[in-house]
Amino acid sequence: MEHMSRNRVILISVVVGVLGIVVGVLIGYFSRGASSGEFADFLSEGHAWVAEALRDEIRADNIRDNLRYLTSGPHLAGTPESKAYADWVLQKWREQGLDDAYVTDYNILLSYPDRESPSYIALLDGSGTERFRTAVFEKAVDAETEEWLSSIVQPFNAYSAPGTVEVGAGPH
């Protein structure tokens, strides 16, 4: 008797599962709806117009010049350099016809690198003697590279508090 009721429970579970899948598929199929008439025509015309407008306005020279300018220097969030880039993009957008373009100021709560006391990682042996230290800045190979490297922001973790972290050796 117990074996028969167990088979019945399994059969009912399978039937309910199959019915659930069928109902889900039917609901999904019929809830999509169809684009019809005027609305479908509007969508297809809109897409063609947008694609054509983009093709007419995009120029490889503009992309190259914009990327060259936007990557010409560091633009760390919350710095005057970053604000200058944002203002430049805003001006470009307004020149290109965006009538509601604006820059929103935010209070940037990041830890910034200190050039006078740069961050580094050092490996110490058991007695505390420094065995390895990461380079803070790359070495310049010529005067032009030195000028360029001096404008680069050194590596740092913007989302951590400033300070010194020491980690002991783990289990061996």
From TrEMBL:
Any one GO molecular-function label of the UniProt entry: carboxypeptidase activity
TM annotation in the entry: 9-30
UniProt entry tagged with the keyword Membrane: yes
Native source species: Branchiostoma lanceolatum
Superkingdom classification of source: Eukaryota
Protein name: NAALAD2 protein
Keywords: Membrane, Transmembrane, Transmembrane helix
